[in-house]
Amino acid sequence: MSGNQRENAFPTRQVLQIYKKKAKGAQKGYDLLKKKSDALTVRFRALLKQIYSTKSSMGDEMKEASFSLAEAVWAADSKFKYKLIDKPMDARIRVRVQNDNVAGVRLPVFEKMTDQSAAAAEAYGLARGGKEIEKCTKKWTTLFENLIQLASLQTSFLALDEAIKVTNRRVNALDNVVIPRTEHNQVH
Amino acid sequence: MAEVPKLLAVMGDEDTVTGFLLAGAGHRDARSANYLIVDGKTKTSAIVDKFKELTSRDDVGILLINQNVAEEIREVLNLYDQMYPTILEIPSKDHPYSAEKDYIMKRVMHMLGK
């Protein structure tokens, strides 16, 4: 493919001017896209590093939270877990998808939403262990906040990945096809 | 894009799900629950079914899954290509996190050239 193809054109000065304009336009388009691709790539790499370091340290957080749960169960009542699951449930924590804008690409991020109206302090019908349960609840709530942030990073990463691929395809198309073609026509 | 807040969901061991419920993310209505407790007796098919159910709902934003559970349904996970819900592989107290197995980290490390 490539270099040797020409568009059919009569070699008049007028036509040459048109092709010169076309080449300039194509070059400009190429430059803009390249800039966009570079901006996306910078953001992309930053995200990669963040995801990697956040996930690597998550293991310790989970261990702490699990330990806290064991303490609470021990302090309260071995049936605590079952009582928890037995209750009817309406999620107090949810997430909302927001859109960030990076170099013209909409990146999704999660925002934590807490339903304040729902009962915050649960009784669970337990005689003891309230303090441990509260401590445990706090630990898990914090952990889930971090997990929600991590999910945002992941989603943005996937969206950026896709955007970069698309942009690069367009850059390559301009680079390999349109520009050489119009340049070739100018020579001719 | 819908502004309606979406649910979290979890598939994991008892401790993880308990923590999830304690934090207030649990939801159960006439349709189903947004969590699944997976233990040694849970069948792989049950895990796959719940995964498919949770990922086909449009009101679930994030799906947390203990990594050892993710390993059991790795083939299904590898084919997953939806934007929502986001799948977050997390460690459990019995199974420390392994970056090599995490489907997201595999891509990340590939990009970073590690």
Q: Which whole number gives the mean pLDDT of chain B?
A: 88
Give the strand tally of chain B.
Answer: 4
Would you tell me the overall average pLDDT of chain A? 77
Specify the overall morphology of chain B. globular
Q: How would a textbook summarize the main sheet of chain B?
A: 4 strands, parallel
- Unreliable spans of chain A are none
Q: What is the tally of helical segments of chain B?
A: 5
Shape of chain A: rod-shaped
Return the structural class of chain B. Answer: alpha/beta
> What's the total count of β strands of chain A?
2
SSE class of chain A: mainly alpha
Q: Strands across the major sheet of chain A, in which order?
A: 1-2
Give the SSE string of chain A: HHEEH
Main beta-sheet annotation of chain A: 2 strands, antiparallel
Strand content of chain B: 15-25%
- Most extensive interface: A-B, 54 and 47 residues
In angstroms, what separates the terminal alpha carbons of chain B? 36 Å
